[in-house]
Amino acid sequence: MDIDFTGKVALVTGAANGIGRATALAFAKSGAKVVVVDRDRAGGEATAGIIRQQGGEAMFVAADVTKSADVQAYVKAALDAYGSIDCFFNNAGIEGKLTHTAEYDEAMFDQVIAVNVKGVFLGLRHVLPEMLRQKSGAVVNTASVAGLVATPGMPAYVASKHAVIGLTKTAAGEVARDGVRVNAVCPGPVDTRMIHSLEQQINPADPASVARRYQAAMPTGRYTTPDEIANMVLFLCSDLASNVTGGQFVVDGGRTATGGSVNQAVED
Fold first, then answer.
1. Model confidence over 60-79: pLDDT tens digits?
2. Is 157 one of the annotated active-site residues of the chain?
3. Residue range 9-188+225-252 in CATH 1.20.1600.10
């Protein structure tokens, strides 16, 4: 069954590359007008440009998701341009550094929490009022399997993604009677810059060996693709998921089902 977002407006943060870009393109291919948000101006403009080249409609808004004024500005830009926000992929996030908790840098911890938790909160804080006024809307927050299981060496990232799931559940319960749904997608390792950064941190001399080891540990034998995450996000934003809210949807090739964490980076 095709998912049709014709006449809808989708706002995607962290859309300059990776999962965000793949999801922005998928929304556009399904008929949505897309608001591309990222602090990476060149990457964000490129995403919007690809959508327009493919015959879709998109605009780019540069924003730092940790700043309330920037978040309010991207919401206003979306409403000024298109009149509504029907789908919100609250996706921007960073991985931080691989270091045991006993040695983790405080400034890096603060940075990860600011982007991954405060950025998600601010998105909810300023988008949900518009959806409540509309009496409709669907939000998908990007959590992670790191929000469900431990990952040694990633205390800030794991804490942040557990927090995203908590925010998702809380917001979902608050707005469900008003026609607004809030869910979380929980990717495992995805073939994007983030996992390759982690591979490089683990073994700078031979990151490819880390990739081979991690993919061999997946029941499917490979990383998830950004398009596969995009497919889940579009489903959750569609009418096919009309009574789905407050959930966490794992897309990880069976890794957590078989007892694995996101990685065993510092332990390996």
1. 999 999 999 999 999 999 99
2. yes
3. no
